[in-house]
Design a protein that fits this description.
By secondary structure, the protein is mainly α. Helices cover 65% and strands 1% of the residues. Helix 2 packs antiparallel against helix 15 and helix 10 runs antiparallel to helix 11. It is globular, with a radius of gyration of 25 Å. Bound molecules: protoporphyrin IX containing FE and copper (II) ion (CU). The site of copper (II) ion has 5 residues, from helix 7.
């Protein structure tokens, strides 16, 4: 019950981590199944329909439900602490964002047991995803599940924007903010502008499919390419929503373990802003082959290649941070250092794909699959591992085992390169993506075998990590406040895990790397910026959970509103939108209660803080 009603950012972080972990596991199992099917030519392990459902659900689950919540977990766990705040700006909204995200994800995954998963790819291109070609409810689960989950993400993003703008400790100007806080800030801004685009697209597709509208239906005057535009206007910024937080994590871990300040801090900040800005200008590089014409293709080519400039700045800044530093190869730093070359390889193939004429050859081959997995797995997932190992003691009060951590790193990164490096060549030799099998004797056999073995090795790496988590959870929670001893930022000045109010007294920030600055001045901790006083806390509440349950029921009700159940009572309930109305009633009723009854929270008095 405690977990369902909590509004504490530290607990919401753990909820996000659980949810993300479980969805990541599901997506990972789906990947393994796909790879088993592709282990040899003409394999009959899976049939074509199941294969399509698996790649669609793997991509969709990984992106929207696997890595996004783990990013949000780290942001929730760390951002208020890094900026010296007692919580996020809107703790209630924070819980609401989590629960809507979770119920959207559950709805999407229910498709497996309720008549078949979506099968039109994670991009749901029309007309493939239209009701004429995708006749089950699969794509409806996709459109409605993602609308609900996306709402949660949008809520989370807005909350972080407000938090970072309004809740920084005295003295923490924007240019004194840690890089992870900057990354969160910019990422949230991208979410604010990108998610509404996909929501609109999904609403239109829902209208086409359920209400018989014609936005993307050629026979009715609609235009399928319109879907691609809407999808990628969201979709490309989405990849920066994924990678910028990883950049932020790397920019925290590398300075800590080099005992040096981040090289080129202000250029890092501006590179982040520039990447976010340019990220909105390049969406049509996914559509070179749709016939936009040479002028549009040339412009989108150039704008895409431009992004390599700020990205290159970042890579060199990380290298220069390590240069001449006292580098310690702890597990988080291994992941961070491993990130640099791996991510760079993904960036280089990105520039190759940005060349429109070359893309006509690469498009929809395994070269693309290799490219985006280098960026997402070799970039983001390695970054998340770095962040999880780095902040684990702060989140749970226990240090993960360094020994097992190193095993995780080596098995995962070797498995990763085995899986995806060979796919570049498979793509160049002509193996298409999204094919469920291939003929023998095209020189695809050996490389696919290597790829599948590599995927298994990555699975082993994940098992090492899970074992590490399990073993660590049985150890006493005795992590020091600053367990890596070289912490530079505010989260390392308070206990691990922090008390529910975080800071007994809000700290005074005197420069970039606030804690490091005090350390070098010979101080043990931060100077407080206020006397010990009464602390205002938000109350726990079940409303965010109820509101999300309501939306979930309404979504299911709407999806089946046109179905013939062969059971007059069920048909009556669904066909008259009674289920939908019931769901909305729960949501709006809950909102009404929230507005009618004031909740002023509660206080922790100075006497209770004595000795803490
Ligand atoms: C962890 C190991 C992973 C393995 C072994 C793996 C493997 C695969 C395979 C075999 C495909 C099918 C390629 C095709 O036929 O087009 C695929 C597609 C895809 N993967 Fe992964 N993947 C992994 C992790 C991830 C992660 C972490 C993400 C994103 C966060 C991701 C995102 C995608 C996407 C978006 C697709 C495209 C799906 C589509 O074509 O609709 N993958 N992956
Ligand atoms: Cu893109």
């Amino acid at each position: 019950m405690d977990w369902i009603t909590t509004v504490d950012h530290k607990k919401i972080a753990i909820l996000y981590l659980w949810a993300g972990g479980i969805f990541f596991g599901i997506g990972g199992l789906e990947a393994i199944l796909i790879r088993i099917q592709l282990i040899k030519p003409m394999n009959t392990f899976l049939d074509a329909q199941t294969f399509n459902e698996l790649i669609t659900m793997h991509g969709t689950t990984m992106i929207f439900l696997g890595v996004m919540p783990v990013i949000f977990a780290l942001m929730n766990a760390v951002i208020p602490l890094q900026i010296g705040a007692r919580d996020v700006a809107f703790p209630f909204l924070n819980a609401l964002g989590f629960w809507t995200f979770l119920f959207g994800g559950i709805l999407l995954n229910l498709s497996w047991i309720m008549g078949g998963a979506p099968d039109a790819g994670w991009t749901a291109y029309t007309p493939l995803s239209s009701s004429s070609y995708s006749t089950t409810h699969g794509v409806d689960f996709y459109t409605i599940g993602l609308q609900i989950a996306g709402l949660g993400t949008l809520i989370g993003g807005i909350n972080f924007l407000a938090t970072i703008i309004t809740m920084r400790a005295p003295g923490m100007s924007f240019m004194r903010m840690p890089m992870f806080a900057w990354a969160t800030f910019i990422t949230s801004a991208i979410i604010l502008f990108a998610f509404p685009a996909v929501t609109v697209g999904l609403v239109l597709l829902t209208f086409d499919r359920i209400l018989g509208a014609n936005f993307f239906e050629t026979s009715g005057g609609g235009n399928p390419v319109l879907w691609q535009h809407i999808f990628w206007i969201f979709g490309h910024p989405e990849v920066y929503i994924l990678i910028l937080p990883a950049f932020g994590i790397i920019s925290e871990v590398i300075p800590t373990f080099s005992r040096k300040r981040l090289f080129g801090y202000s250029s890092m900040v501006f590179a982040t802003i520039l990447i976010a800005f340019l990220g909105f200008m390049v969406w049509a590089h996914h559509m070179f082959t749709t016939g936009l014409g040479p002028v549009a293709n040339a412009l989108f080519s150039v704008s895409t290649m431009l992004i390599a400039v700020p990205t290159g700045i970042k890579i060199f800044n990380w290298l220069f941070t390590m240069w001449g530093g006292q580098v310690r190869f702890t597990t988080p730093n291994l992941f961070a250092v491993g990130f640099i070359p791996t991510f760079t390889m993904g960036g280089v193939t990105g520039v190759m794909l940005a060349s429109a004429p070359a893309d006509f050859q690469f498009h929809d081959t395994y070269f693309v699959v290799a490219h985006f997995h280098y960026v997402i797995v070799g970039g983001l997932v390695l970054g998340l591992f770095a962040g999880l190992h780095y902040w684990w003691p702060k989140m749970f009060g226990r240090m993960l085992s360094e020994h097992l951590g190193k095993w995780t790193f080596w098995t995962f990164i070797i498995g990763f390169h085995m899986t995806f490096f060979v796919q570049h060549f498979l793509g160049l030799m002509g193996m298409q993506r999204r094919v469920f099998t291939y003929l023998p004797n095209q020189q695809f056999d050996l490389l696919n075998l290597i790829s599948t073995i590599g995927a298994g090795l990555m699975g082993v790496g994940m098992l090492f990590f899970l074992a590490n988590v399990f073993i660590t959870s049985r150890k006493p929670a005795d992590a020091a406040d600053d367990p890596w001893e070289d912490g530079r930022t505010l989260e390392w000045t308070i206990s691990s895990p922090p008390p529910e109010y975080n800071f007994k007294q809000t700290p005074l920030v005197r420069g970039l790397d606030a804690f490091w600055k005090e350390k070098t001045a010979g101080h043990k901790g931060m100077t407080p910026s206020e006397p010990v006083g009464s602390i205002h806390m938000p109350s726990a509440t079940v409303h965010p959970f109820l509101m999300s349950v309501g939306i979930f029921i309404a979504g299911l009700g709407f999806m089946f509103s046109r179905d013939d159940f062969g059971n007059s009572f069920m048909s009556f309930l669904f066909n008259n939108y009674i289920v939908t109305a019931l769901g909305l009633l729960i949501t709006f009723g809950s909102m009404l209660m929230r507005s009618l009854f004031d909740d002023h929270g509660w206080h922790i008095e100075p006497e209770e803080l004595e000795g803490r």
